[in-house]
Design goal:
Layout: E1 3-11, E2 15-17, H1 30-41, E3 43-49, H2 50-63, H3 71-82, E4 85-88, E5 99-102, H4 107-117, E6 121-125, H5 127-132, E7 139-145, E8 153-154, E9 165-171, E10 177-182
Parallel strand pairs: 1-6, 1-7, 3-4, 3-6, 4-5
Antiparallel strand pairs: 2-8, 7-10, 9-10
Helix pairs in contact: 1-3, 2-3
């Protein structure tokens, strides 16, 4: 049985996007890129909401995987492209090779099936998708960036209490902290 993790990068005040919808407050250092590459090596599949998929797909399959991009970014791009990607969307009509479109009505059943079939880590991304699949998430991974953005899109917009246990914590030299929480 697989493990579903929810991983997003946030500001200190808990936002994955600034009020203007941008993520330009995040300037990753090489140590962050290395940590992300190490994590992605262990990912068996990505489960994305449409907006996060669109934010990730073109940069990592086209722009940053090209010759001339920094080596750590090219490595992440290669790992990303090699990993099966599922995008949960009712609006996308086509997807490139390696990407499977899942309609929202089938989201929970598909994620449940993948969790049962894949003996590995399924990385869930996108706060609305994570909220809709909250009961399937085994671990919550957060890279907290040393910046306050004052509003925007929250890490996880749930309206109920969810108690977790800190299982891992470290601070990167460039400033972000990594926390891995599990259900007790």
């Amino acid at each position: 049985m697989g493990t579903v993790i929810y991983w997003m990068n946030t500001s200190i005040d808990g936002y994955i996007e600034a009020p203007n919808g941008g993520m330009d407050f995040f300037e990753p250092g090489d140590d962050f890129h290395q940590a992300a590459n190490d994590h992605v090596r262990r990912i068996s599949a990505f489960l994305f909401g449409r907006r996060l998929y669109e934010a990730m797909e073109k940069p990592w399959t086209q722009d940053l995987g090209q010759e001339g991009a920094p080596a750590l970014e090219r490595e992440f791009a290669q790992l990303y492209k090699e990993t099966p990607r599922y995008v949960f969307s009712d609006t996308l009509q086509t997807a490139p090779e390696g990407v499977t479109i899942v309609r929202r009505k089938d989201a929970v059943s598909t994620a449940t099936r993948l969790k049962q079939e894949i003996d590995g880590t399924l990385q869930l991304g996108g706060p609305e998708l994570a909220t809709s699949m909250l009961d399937l998430i085994d671990e919550f991974w957060v890279y907290t960036l040393p910046v306050i953005v004052g509003g925007g899109k929250p890490y996880l917009p749930v309206e109920k209490e969810l108690r977790l246990r800190l299982a891992e914590h470290r601070t990167l030299a460039s400033g972000p902290t990594y926390q891995r929480y599990v259900r007790p």
